[in-house]
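Example record

The entry below shows one chain as it appears in the dataset: sequence first, then structure tokens.
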Amino acid sequence: MRYTTIGDGEHGFEVSVLALGTMYFGTRTDEETSFAILDRYVEAGGTFLDTANNYNAWVGGHGRDSEDVLGRWLASRGSRDRVRIATKLGAAKKDPSKPLSNEPPTNYQGLAAEVVDREARESLRHLGIDRIDLLYGHVDDRETPIAETVAAFGKLQADGVVDLTGISNVSTWRVATAHLEARQQGVRPYAVVQQRHSYLYPPPVPPRTSWVNADLLDYAASGGVDGRIPLSVVAYSPLEQGALARDDKPLFGGADNAGSRARVRELRQVARELGATPNQVAIAWLLGGEVPVIPLVGASSVEQLDELLDAVELDLPAEVRERMDAV
């Protein structure tokens, strides 16, 4: 395993360069299998676990199923000191009787101060821990003033409930605004942004604020020097839910376009030439970029996880990366 440091300028910690998502632990992935995947990940040196307060509600769970599974695994293995736990809040249903919607009128809990405080402390209870290593706002909330949200996250840090904070599914200008607000309030800023990112990319219209773009990578690259706030980028859906390797998995959410289909063909050709899998090449491409990101991967079996763990040691030759980038 390889490692990197994430932090906000005041405090930081080391994490493995491959994060493990636990979205379906407790529902689609049963607890025995979930424990086996977690055990293998830690055995291989993985230290960065990711969950949320609402994931399994999408597939018939109550929402915090994966937090509960992680909590039971941490307790049974005594592994709290070996891993860093990231969770998210703000994207669960505000009104449980209505469908989740990101179109006005939205039905997200949002990032108002009361929600941030209540949901973070509830995550502590479900995870069975006394401090969240990294807490994200799951979806940017434009109906709540940034000043209120930034203050709420800062208070959780001051109270010792949270170490680092982050934001997900957000425009770059909103991250910069939140950073400025944190400076003005004298609280700690967001240290991490989690966005969708892979070897593929969407067309620029309509704007998709949930994707990594060049502006975000440029902003992250500029941080950490000359007094600028450091910022790390975590990439979710780096394997496009299986579509990079399997023809039976459709490209989704803006990725289905001629450019992306050409990139899938090139990715698979490179994998054949290197004796690797398309998933491994896709992860290596993310890890070896000019602005490295932290891929957040999911696995439903130990065998799937082993394939992805092997990608950490795959360094793409410069000429291969240049060829891939040119598509």
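Notes for this example: The chain has one domain: 3-239+278-316. The domain at 3-239+278-316 is CATH 3.20.20.100 (TIM Barrel).
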